[in-house]
Give the backbone structure.
Amino acid sequence: MAVKIIFLGPLRDMAGMDSTQVEAPLDWARLLKAVGEDIAAQLQEERVNIACGGRVLSDKTELQASDGDEVALLPPVSGG
């Protein structure tokens, strides 16, 4: 089955798509491989967060997404 990865903000521009699906289960290492080198480098930045199932993870390296989960890649918020 599948996990949906949702790209937001500038990460969407980098990916060239809104979302993609990958085979479940999905952990941190598999996520980095699935999104490509440029986005993987961004995800490793402290300011980029990951949400799984609508909940922002306190430690994104502990990602454990199962079939039907949505994983959102959250770039830093800017503005005032």
